[in-house]
Amino acid sequence: MTVLVMNAMAQPLIEPHLPSWIEPHFFRNTDELFDLAPQAEIGWFDLYDKADMVTAMRSATKLRWLNSIYAGLDGWPLDLLRERGVIVTNGAGINAVTIAEYVVMGMLTVAKGYREVVRAQDRHEWLRASPGVMELAGSKALVLGAGAIGQKIARMLGGFDVEVVTVRRTPGPGDLGPDKWRARLGEFDWVILAVPSTSDTAAMIGAAELAAMKPTAHLINIARGEVIDQPALVATLQAKAIGGAFLDVTTPEPLPADHVLWTLPNAHVTMHLSGQAQNKMFQRGVARFLANIPRFHAGERLEAQVDLALGY
Length: 312
Hints:
Number of helices: 10
Largest sheet: 6 strands, parallel
CATH class of the largest domain: Alpha Beta
CATH architecture of the largest domain: 3-Layer(aba) Sandwich
Helix content: 25-40%
Order of helices and strands: EHEHEHEHEHHEHEEHEHEEH
CATH topology of the largest domain: Rossmann fold
């Protein structure tokens, strides 16, 4: 028998479909997870507090496969998991649809000045002209990150007649490689960050990159706050050196109430809600996990299996 340890919240969806070779144990709180983790050979340790998840991972010395619904693995002991030979699967792509929709929403909000429309409604004021007159059609977008989210963004924007160029680690026809995109930043109306948080992507958008952008361009970040040099971005926005920024993620999170980003008229802060703007994430995660169980048993590669050396 192979011991599975996971959150009891998923028990009704998972337990009826488990094969006979799996012995399930379900935890209902953190203390129960800590008690059960050392027995786990398959673990799904998701908690709101990621520090407690890491504690459970460190104690799970029998672990062979660790699953998570989270896409970002920042803060995880990836080196330790790799040393132990643990297979890790994450939530990459599970929320691609809703996050891509959020990007399109953000672009339309900016292009049409919709925030000012809502504020006018709150004032009961009938506007005589649109506060935003930009059309998405004919604009150019640079999408950094060609995972499931980046690919979905590119496909959706194609429907709006946006010209999209994608940055990939291994570029294909029409893509840019990781050493080519900076030289072309000035061509794009939208710079969209959909990269994983790794040592390679930390502060990849800094003062130099911001200075290279078109003065009317907008930066959109649905990756992690750490991929932007936030003080440099604040200075750029204060100087109105770019059109603006649509930030679903910041550093830190939650953003302190007195942080200057809240006050900048050319900044949109959306509180890391893009992945939450849906009601199907858990069901998709369960379906993926169940589909991976026979693959794991057969020694096959799993869907959404993480390269622990790269961190995604």
